[in-house]
Amino acid sequence: AQSVAQPEDQVNVAEGNPLTVKCTYSVSGNPYLFWYVQYPNRGLQFLLKYITGDNLVKGSYGFEAEFNKSQTSFHLKKPSALVSDSALYFCAVTDGGFKTIFGAGTRLFVKA
Amino acid sequence: ETGVTQSPTHLIKTRGQQVTLRCSSQSGHNTVSWYQQALGQGPQFIFQYYREEENGRGNFPPRFSGLQFPNYSSELNVNALELDDSALYLCASSGTGGVGEKLFFGSGTQLSVL
Fold this sequence. Notes:
By secondary structure, chain A is mainly beta. Chain A is 0% helix and 52% strand.
């Protein structure tokens, strides 16, 4: 069975500092990994995905994520946080089937 | 390019009633997935429709049912509403439901069951 864990309910970071939002996954086959962001009262927006190839994936708004197969992790990173990055972030995984499984989400708070 | 649209945006029902939520998929997409997002939780997969057929289902009871129409729009029907059905219901479309496709989400329908 597929599963996703986001161990932090909230991440606090000062504007201009680097940020990391953690994600670990479990899947029986090859993992297809995603990050989505959700703003208040809105649906989820795609940030980036890992399918195969380079372990460092670059996405929207300056975000990137690093796939680590041995640690089954896919952490989201950004070199310099902005106040406007404050939102709810979801990691998701699929094994290539019809179902995409989402983590519980991590709230990112960037302080000015 | 038209995005994913959902209606209504908000809905209040009482326990035992039935509800129908609607979703128009993004132009060119033939796959629609429905998710339930309870407060403070991640989206939970309900089911997926591909070319008018249910393509897969999550751990939801049969009183959650759906349809997909020839234009690839979709409905989610919930019968015998329970208090725990209160949640944000999200519709997501993708091109073919294929491997590694990203999902395009609507803004959701907030359902409150009293």
